[in-house]
Design goal:
Layout lengths: L1 E10 L2 E11 L4 E5 L6 H9 L6 E6 L2 E2 L5 H9 L1 E4 L11 H12 L4 H14 L15 H12 L6 E5 L7 H18 L2 E6 L2 H7 L2 E6 L2 E6 L1 H5 L4 H19 L5
Parallel strand pairs: 3-8, 3-9, 6-7, 7-8
Antiparallel strand pairs: 1-2, 1-4, 4-5, 9-10
């Protein structure tokens, strides 16, 4: 479980986040939604320690991350798996080398064990016989799968996914959503997904936080979301759903 308490963040004179408190629950797909520029990515970066908030705390299992000693922070980071927007694979590394990268950075195991672990992760995301290919030789959906395999290589306790469906067609997006949900259930991770894709929210979102103008505007389940009378949330849902329909009509082109 990850808790955020009274978190505020600014860059110079610009206040990006204001007094955000939320709980991200273990074993669930927790989603942070909101329009571009709302502050959701900055919130995620504060949670993983890439930004330090001016006020508030980020608690991992009740322990304040920003008050930890460097060794304690390193231990937490080793328990975090990250799926970046655009996959962020290393172009010069093969598929299996990309998946092995965090193992080489943090794990204490023989190369053969790393290769076995990487193979297991690739098999888990249904990628077979692609080990020696480079990212440029894969489709966008395949690259996302490799990104997920790399994210779970260290058996993470926490899984962060930044816009996992960005650039994907609707059908491939559904596959990636289902895969993230399956892995969350299988590994019992605290999964946090940043998204503005309402199809993803309605398919896999179990605990949803809506960020609007740097503040937590709404929090609840997808069932509660459908019955919300929050005007800003409803406007966001309508605009997102409409854009999704337009893209689908155009064949998934963005």
């Amino acid at each position: 479980m990850i808790e955020v308490k009274g978190l505020s963040k600014r860059f110079g004179e610009v206040q990006v986040l204001t007094d955000i408190s939320a709980t991200f629950r273990k074993g669930l797909v927790n989603q942070i939604i909101g329009k571009s520029g709302s502050g959701k990515s900055v919130l995620a970066k504060c949670i993983v320690g890439l930004h330090r908030p001016e006020e508030g705390k980020v608690l991992y299992e009740g322990h304040s991350f920003h008050e930890m000693e460097p060794d304690e922070k390193r231990e937490i980071r080793q328990r975090i798996g990250m799926l970046f927007q655009g996959s962020a694979l290393f172009d010069s590394l093969t598929v299996i080398e990309n998946v092995m990268f965090p193992l080489r950075m943090f794990a204490t195991m023989a190369k053969s064990e790393m290769e076995d672990r990487a193979q297991t992760c690739l098999k888990r995301v249904n990628i077979l016989e692609k080990d020696d290919l480079f990212p440029a030789e894969l489709s966008g959906g395949m690259q996302k799968r490799v990104g997920i395999a790399r994210a779970i290589a260290m058996n993470p306790q926490y899984l962060f996914c930044d816009e996992p469906n960005s650039g994907l067609d609707p059908q491939t997006s559904i596959v990636i959503d289902e895969l993230i949900k399956e892995i969350t259930d299988e590994f019992n991770t605290t999964t946090i997904v940043i998204t503005h894709d309402m199809n993803s929210v309605m398919e896999t979102g179990e605990h949803i936080i809506f960020i609007h103008d740097g503040r937590k505007w709404w929090e609840g389940s997808r069932e509660e979301l459908l019955n919300s009378d929050n005007e800003e949330l409803n406007a966001f849902i309508f605009a997102s759903a409409l854009m999704r329909q337009v893209k689908a009509a155009m064949g998934g082109k963005s």
